[in-house]
Specification:
This protein is α+β, with helices and mostly antiparallel strands. Helix content is about 20%, strand content about 35%.
Length: about 220
């Protein structure tokens, strides 16, 4: 876990770009300038485009929501892959649940946000493989960080940051026992990935497969 100051600057970021992207942007700009003044125009143009992509990929727009405490927000930008009813307890929630999966491609905002307010009970990092994040087996076999949250009224929700075929870097800025707010930044995954959310089985779902969602804004469902 990084120092509390570093964590706070990432969670409360006021820059238009996530701080993890700044080194990529600076390196790209420096190399572009070196190529340009060396007379290597084509390489300079290519590196300039790479720098612009880094700025685009790590963008971190301001998000504002005005929802009730029972609303579960999407933790990621992207597209809904699945909404599955899990009738047994063989899932990270440990009881019958509803699983909502959000797939992020390389063009989505990759800063992740807390789905609802509460306390972080547990964070577990699990090493694994790097299958394409839109495959069924990615949910169980890929590298992931599993986060268990408890609301003020004792309901639990589990959400997973899941690495993909290209994404090889999961970043989580929160820690166990942290009090968090719905829509708050909590991490990111580089270069295409997926987030799974496990909700209580009586949750009223408000999204459907193939629907586009925005982190910290789109409501996935409502707790009862």
């Amino acid at each position: 876990m990084a120092s509390s100051h570093i964590v706070k600057t990432r969670i409360e970021n006021r820059l238009p770009i996530a701080r993890e992207g700044i080194p990529f942007l600076i390196i790209g700009i420096v190399i572009t300038i070196i190529f340009y003044f060396s007379g290597l125009i084509i390489p300079a143009v290519i590196m300039g485009l790479v720098s612009l992509f880094a700025l685009y990929f790590f963008r971190d727009p301001v998000r504002v929501n005005n929802v009730g405490s029972d609303a579960v927000l999407s933790p990621a930008d992207g597209k809904i892959l699945y909404v599955l009813n899990l009738e047994d307890g063989d899932n990270p929630l440990g009881e019958p649940a509803i699983k909502v999966s959000v797939f992020m491609n390389v063009f989505n905002v990759h800063v992740n946000r807390i789905p609802l307010s509460g306390r972080i009970l547990k964070i577990a990092y699990n090493p694994g493989k790097f299958f394409s994040a839109n495959l069924d087996k990615a949910s169980e076999q890929n590298e992931n960080t599993k986060i268990t949250l408890e609301t003020d009224n004792g309901q639990r929700v589990v959400f997973l940051q899941i690495a993909g075929f290209i994404a090889r870097r999961i970043v989580c800025w929160i820690d166990e026992q942290d009090q968090v707010q719905a829509g708050q930044r909590f991490g990111l995954i580089r270069f295409g990935s997926r987030l799974d959310v496990y909700l209580p089985s009586n949750c009223k779902i408000a999204v459907m497969p193939n629907q586009k969602v925005n982190a910290g804004v789109t409501v996935l469902g409502y707790l009862k």
